[in-house]
Design a protein that fits this description.
The structure holds two protein chains of two kinds. Chain A is mainly beta. Chain A has no helices and eleven strands. By secondary structure, chain B is mostly beta strands. Chain B is 0% helix and 57% strand. Chain B contains no helices and eleven strands. In chain B, strands 2, 4, 5, 9, 10 and 11 form a six-stranded mixed sheet that branches. Chain B has a five-stranded antiparallel sheet with strand order 1-3-8-7-6, with no helix packed on it. The chains are: A mainly beta, B mainly beta.
Chain lengths: 113, 110
Amino acid sequence: DGGITQSPKYLFRKEGQNVTLSCEQNLNHDAMYWYRQDPGQGLRLIYYSQIVNDFQKGDIAEGYSVSREKKESFPLTVTSAQKNPTAFYLCASSSRASGETQYFGPGTRLLVL
Amino acid sequence: RKEVEQDPGPFNVPEGATVAFNCTYSNSASQSFFWYRQDCRKEPKLLMSVYSSGNEDGRFTAQLNRASQYISLLIRDSKLSDSATYLCVVKDNYGQNFVFGPGTRLSVLP
């Protein structure tokens, strides 16, 4: 089945630790996105990538980093510089062929110990 | 002013009721419009795209008013399973970002 997978479902981070969230899609979509959602809040864009080996900062990129070495994969690293990382992280992808509709993965919940 | 604003909610309605959600956007260059639904602790899922002429999908009707920069979603004959948060999303064709509204929560009561 085609879709977007994210792992892990839950992730615990210790103070000062970098953690990486995985996002993989087999929809052959060119564009991929990372969002953060806090309780009772809307989605805020962290980073996005329109093509392999290229990505741009979103509205809240500080304390995060990404890579796009393969079309299928767009991992997000939450660095120790991100002081308030506890949130629900959502990965999405889209393509012009799909009418620019975004499809989301199931999300990763990050908690700080 | 926020780029995309929605009715603050929550909306609590009885089964069978008709409910309407409103959304306004500030970027006049916006070209694509969507409604997503998000269940508690789950990812957003596309409910419907919104076309200039308006469109209907079963009990759901979406309308777009470009002059007023306004989008609406009408749900007829509400079901318990319609309980969720409804997200308004807009996108312009110059940038590549999708801008999400804060969402409006709907609870359909038995």
